[in-house]
Design brief:
about 290 residues; alpha+beta; five-stranded antiparallel beta sheet
Amino acid sequence: MAIISEYEEEEAKPSTSSPPPPKTVSFTGSLDPSNPAGFLEKVFDFIAKESDFLGKATAEKEVAALVKAAKEKSKKKVEGGASKTELKKEVKEEKETKKEVKETKTEEKQEPMDIDKKEETGFRVPNKGNGLDLEKYSWTQTLQEVTVNVPVPKGTKSRLVVCEIKKNHLKVGLKGQPPLIDGDLYKPLKVDDCYWSIEDESSLSILLTKQDQMEWWKSLVKGDPEIDTQKVEPENSKLSDLDPETRQTVEKMMFDQRQKAMGLPTSDEMQKQDIMKKFMAEHPEMDFSKAKFS
């Protein structure tokens, strides 16, 4: 009887073998820092295609929870990095001699001012004229024009100036000296509408008319530091000078830039969403749980 009992117990034991793991599907994508929402859209399209996650009733809550956790993690990381930086700075100041502190302050004063304005993305914050202040020249812009200011020695006459303005190239300097600007322009010009002049015998002012008057330039010439065009702030008075159609286009472009910067849908995307919501409301009998929206 004991033998039969042991056999029955062994036979009753559940199988220890586990079901095969689910097949892993790889995802490939690239992130454009200026449009993170586009990357997230691709991710959700991929999830919708390869799984039933978005069809769950709790999908939105789970995604929101992930976003919230990521934001808190990023915030803690920034605060922790700042604390470590301050601590290291205090320890360094205690160990340095008065002479070393003085030398450090001197070196900091010699650094160009615009270096502090460089962002983590590699782009720089625009100056008040939506351009950039560099060592040898500065430039500002509107949607229609670019104005370049190049300091020259006091008393400089026009006959001593070298200023060659071409459709895609700009060369500026003084005769007998290396050029102060010599490079390919960020975008083409309307050469016939460009001119230059000497202001107060100490500054060379160059007016460049853009060929495409619906785009902000990131730099004057290619290879120079670039600005973050999402931080450009056009003057309202300039918008009022535009014809209604152009003004509407500019305002739409500015709205879309702000929306992208905040990770929100652009005006075109919002219009598509409204059309889809209206269609879904008119056809409640249809299942849109696995539909792709672009």
